[in-house]
Amino acid sequence: MPSTQEIFEKIHEVLKKDPSRTGGLTAIYQFNLTGEDGAVYQIHLTPTSAEVTQGEKELANCTLELAADDFKEMVEGRLNGTAAFMSGKLRVEGDLGLAMRLESVLSAYAS
Predict the structure, then answer these.
(1) CB 3.0-4.6 Å disulfide test: which of 24, 37, 89, 94 passes with 84?
(2) Full-prediction pTM beyond 0.85?
(3) Are 110 and 76 a contacting pair, CB within 8 Å?
(4) Which segments of the chain are extended strands (E)?
(5) In this structure, how many other beta carbons lie within 10 angstroms of the beta carbon of residue 87?
(6) Are 77 and 109 in contact (CB under 8 A)?
(7) Measured in whole angstroms, how far is the alpha carbon of residue 48 from the centre of its chain?
(8) What is the pLDDT of residues 19-72, one digit of tens each?
């Protein structure tokens, strides 16, 4: 299984080539990943660009907190984001509407 860093590197690579995949979102998502492979990552999106950074660089519009292993399962399609939220594996702060659109952002990993 790839590391969280490798996952975010791939998301960055795919979104940088084709930022239209996110449907014109302008947002900063922050992922507070806990556990053995945990770290803090941000995805900065505009309709024409996408950047991924490690660490808390700017104030996020939507912050997601979950275990790194659960995050990996989510990006690989084995854990539904809504199910993770309902079961308490995923906590969301900020704009819940952005959280609902997260799947289009994370789908960049599966490409």
Answers:
(1) 89
(2) yes
(3) yes
(4) 27-34, 40-46, 49-54, 62-67, 91-94
(5) 11
(6) no
(7) 18
(8) 888 888 999 999 999 999 999 999 999 999 999 999 999 999 999 999 999 999
Tokens read off for 97? 């509407």
Q: Which two tokens stand for residue 50?
A: 């996408």
Q: How confident is the model at residue 106 (pLDDT cuts 50, 70, 90)?
A: confident
| 84-to-10, 25, 79, 87, 102 alpha-carbon distances in Å | 23, 23, 7, 5, 13
DSSP letter, residue 56: -
Q: Show the CA angle centred on residue 98, arms to residues 62 and 52, nearest 5°.
A: 60
Record the tokens describing residue 23, joined without a space: 């449907």
**Token pair for 26:** 């302008």
Q: In what order do the strands lie in the sheet with 27-34?
A: 49-54, 40-46, 27-34, 62-67, 91-94
Spatial contact of 57 and 78, defined as CB atoms under 8 Å apart: no
